Amino acid sequence: MPVFLCTACGSEFPPAAQTPAHCPICEDARQYVPAAGQGWTTQERLAAGHANSFRQHAPGFFAIRTVPAFAIDQRAFLVPHPEGGFLLWDCLALLDAATIALIRALGGLRGIAISHPHYYTSCVSWSRAFDDAPVYLHAADREWVMRPDPCQVFWEGETRMIADGLTLIRAGGHFPGGTVLHWAGGAAGQGALLSGDIAQVVADRRSVSFMRSYPNLIPLAAPMVRRIAARLEPFAFAAVYGAFAGREILDDGKGAVMRSVARYLDALAGDDSDR
Ligand SMILES: [Zn+2]
Ligand SMILES: [Zn+2]
Predict the structure, then answer these.
(1) Is CB count within 10 Å lower at the N or C end of the chain?
(2) Do 81 and 166 touch, CB atoms closer than 8 A?
(3) What superfamily in CATH does domain 5-33+52-269 come from?
(4) pLDDT by residue (tens digit) across 115-153?
(5) Cα–ligand 1 centroid distance for 28 (angstroms)
(6) Residue ranges per domain, the chain?
(7) How far apart are CA 182 and CA 129, in angstroms?
(8) Which residues surround ligand 2, an ion (CB under 5 A)?
């Protein structure tokens, strides 16, 4: 039976003879159902018109993105794992034969960790293609898993070190289980933060911002943004890699995040003086 993928968010659903009746991820206020209605595809159909492209950001550190753009158009990252191969950070809907062959040739996947449900996408298919690699998801977002599977490891609490120098931090915000990855060896040993949609690197590439819904422009409440700052405070990082192509801060990343938090809180607290 086919595994159907939602064309608006890229989520895969359990094998079924018929397309799903609807997509709960897209019907949630943080996403949307396209004007033309919910659409469905399969890996085979998707691969017929799309491929994954790879970009090296540092030796052994790659971003992967589907071209032409598909669904939310996020990127995923291959982060070097201390025991060899990679941790896949975030995920993509498309998993084609070239992607499997290339990643295998580079050492394979030791695990998959995903920031929040918009990027859960085809994580079960990815795990199966890479020796049942564990998929780390925060337990607070479990209700948004569209294709439950034993590969998923639901972690709890505020941090989880999944390997030496690779720490998941539950920052919350955009989703209750919203997670970022701290990579101590990133940015030539100064530390890197892979921030997904949780701290969104914005167009100036010098700051981040925070939203409950990006497409529907619902801001995040001030206490949640203060909490994100508090959860990141113990970690050092020079670089921040956001969810979308070209969105990275390569210098003084932590300063940039903390200044962005102050700017955001100022904006929300602003008066009516039209300044
Ligand atoms: Zn969807
Ligand atoms: Zn999102």
Answers:
(1) C
(2) yes
(3) Ribonuclease Z/Hydroxyacylglutathione hydrolase-like (3.60.15.10)
(4) 999 999 999 999 999 999 999 999 999 999 999 999 999
(5) 9
(6) 5-33+52-269
(7) 25
(8) 118, 197
